[in-house]
């Protein structure tokens, strides 16, 4: 299964793609979609166009997006929410299901603690995906989201298999 993890951002939208085969997870690609300056609608369109190109090129089969947090700046939170809408829309346009994970859940899976900082996330992404150099903190976060989704998908598959073997529907 090929998974794209997406870290929402209006200026820098991180993305990371991994392949999952049984218990092996391998890096495919990562990057950052950047919006320029200008009105909000134009910036959202730039993100949509760039993220769509990523999905066309790499053809993921599943997507995961980080849930946004609410901060003190209401206008900033609203703009981030609109960028997050692009992160949900583009995979849906490609027929993908989109899972959502809280930032603390992603950090817990990848680092082992829910309140890890960006440096710890980057370090663990590099450890888990040997030889990978993320194109910045946003791409590293996106890879962490993809790893979190892979972990949950693997667990779900094992649970489904165990339930089937036990004869539980």
Characterization of the model:
The structure is a single chain. Strands 3-2-1-4-5 form a 5-stranded mixed β-sheet. The model is unreliable at 158-163 (pLDDT under 50). It has 5 helices and 5 strands; from the N terminus they run βββαβαβααα. With 169 residues, the protein is an alpha/beta fold. Helix 1 (40-58) packs parallel to helix 2 (74-93) and helix 4 crosses helix 5. A hairpin with a 4-residue loop joins strand 1 and strand 2. The chain is 51% helix and 21% strand. The chain has one domain (2-165): Nucleotidyltransferase, domain 5 (2-Layer Sandwich), CATH 3.30.420.10.
Search tags:
single chain, 169 residues, alpha/beta, Nucleotidyltransferase, domain 5, 5-stranded mixed sheet, 5 helices, 5 strands
Please provide a brief summary of the model:
With 169 residues, the chain is an alpha/beta fold.
What's the end-to-end separation, in Å?
Answer: 24 Å
Strand order of the largest sheet: 3-2-1-4-5
Tell me the number of strands: 5
Report the uncertain regions. Answer: 158-163
């Amino acid at each position: 299964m090929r998974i794209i993890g997406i870290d929402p951002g209006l200026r820098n939208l991180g993305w990371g793609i991994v392949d999952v085969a049984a218990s092996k997870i391998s890096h495919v690609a990562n990057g950052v979609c950047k919006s320029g300056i200008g009105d909000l609608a134009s910036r959202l369109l730039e993100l949509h166009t760039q993220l769509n190109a990523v999905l066309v090129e790499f053809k993921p089969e599943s997507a995961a997006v980080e849930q946004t947090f609410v901060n003190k700046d209401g206008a900033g939170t609203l703009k981030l929410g609109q960028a997050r809408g692009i992160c949900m829309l583009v995979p849906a346009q490609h027929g993908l299901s989109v899972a959502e994970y809280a930032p603390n859940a992603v950090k817990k899976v990848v680092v082992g603690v829910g309140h890890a900082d960006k440096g710890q996330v980057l370090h663990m992404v590099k450890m888990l995906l040997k030889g990978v150099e993320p194109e910045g903190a946003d791409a590293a976060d996106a890879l962490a989201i993809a790893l979190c989704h892979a972990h949950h998908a693997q667990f779900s598959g094992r649970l489904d298999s165990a339930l089937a073997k036990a004869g539980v529907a």
